[in-house]
Amino acid sequence: MPDPDVPLTQWLVLAAQGERGALDRVFALLYPELRRIAHGRLRTQRDDALLDTTSLVHETFLRLVDAAQLVLNDRKHFFAYAAKTMRHIIVDFAREQLAERRGGGVAPLALDTALGERLGGPSGETTLVRINDALLALEAVDAGLARVVEMRYFAGYSETEIAELLGSSERTVRRQWDKARSFLLASLQE
């Protein structure tokens, strides 16, 4: 087993080479930061949501392990991939919640006016799915803008952190964020 004082980048290289336990070491090194990101992202969800910080971090790790061809070169690449993975997990969870709410295969029930009023308007899950669909459209137009949105909205990074991870200036990230928000707002209003 390699030296535990090896820098993160070297652990990522070892993980890509199939070194047993290297991805576990990467996960252990970055676990606190992944928890912070997941907690920030999930704090806006309802209190009764079944997806919590620990579940999101662990599911992210499981998907990283399952990605056999994944090559993570450095910290920036790792967190960009983790942000994208968290986005997919959150959106998949929202879709499952919507499917359950819509009956999940159970015979439809006729709604009367009183029941419809008790159920209320669009849920957070609906909003997440709509945002994801708009983000997919943005990704088709400009993948860089979509990456900034993933890191800001789904991973909870600040503009300063995104600039550091992407190797660009805060001003560039701010412009990209503004441009992406305009695109997403237009998409969501359609």
At a glance:
The chain has nine helices and no strands. The protein has helices at residues 8-16, 22-42, 53-66, 75-101, 113-119, 124-141, 143-154, 159-166, 170-189.
Task: Describe the protein's architecture and organization.
There is one protein chain. The protein is an all-alpha fold and 190 residues long. The chain has one domain. 72% of the residues lie in helices and 0% in strands. The protein has nine helices and no strands. The chain has helices at residues 8-16, 22-42, 53-66, 75-101, 113-119, 124-141, 143-154, 159-166, 170-189. The longest helix has 27 residues, at 75-101. It is globular and about 50 Å long. Mean pLDDT is 76; it is low at 105-122.
Q: Would you report the number of β strands?
A: 0
> What is the element string, with H for helices and E for strands?
HHHHHHHHH
Distance between the termini: 55 Å
Residue ranges: pLDDT <50 for 5 or more in a row?
Answer: 105-122
* Domain tally: 1
Q: Helix content range of the residues, please?
A: over 70%
| Number of discrete helical segments | 9
Rg result: 19 Å
The proportion of residues in beta strands is under 5%
Largest sheet: none
* Mean pLDDT level: 76
Estimated structural class: mainly alpha
Inertia-based shape: globular
Salient structural properties:
mainly alpha, 9 helices
Topology:
Elements (H helix, E strand, L loop, with lengths): L7 H9 L5 H21 L10 H14 L8 H27 L11 H7 L4 H18 L1 H12 L4 H8 L3 H20 L1
Helix pairs in contact: 1-2, 2-3, 3-4, 4-6, 4-7, 6-7, 6-9, 7-9, 8-9
